[in-house]
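Fold it.
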Amino acid sequence: MSTETAEDRIPGAAARDVLEFLAKSIVDEPESVVIDMEEGRRGDVRLSLRVSSDDMGKVIGRRGRVAQAIRAVVRAAGAREGLEVGVDIVD
C-alpha cells in the first residue's frame, strides 16, 4: 500500500498519465510521444502533446474526432482531481 497522499502528487499528474497512455496506444512510434505540462494561474493545467509528423493524422483523426475524444477523457481525469485540464496537439 502506498503512503503517498493527494497533496504529494503533482497537480494534473493523473491527466498527464492518461494522455500519455492514450497517445502511445494510438501512434506507431510511441517513443516519439512528448507531453509538456504547464500550470495556469487559476489552477488549471495545460498539456501539450507532440507526436511524430507521421502519427499526427492518427492522433487528430477524421474531422478531429480522435482529438476530441482524447480531450474529453483527459478532461475527465483532471476533473477527478478537481482540475480543469486542456490538451493542445502541437505540430
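The first strand starts at residue 34 and ends at 39.
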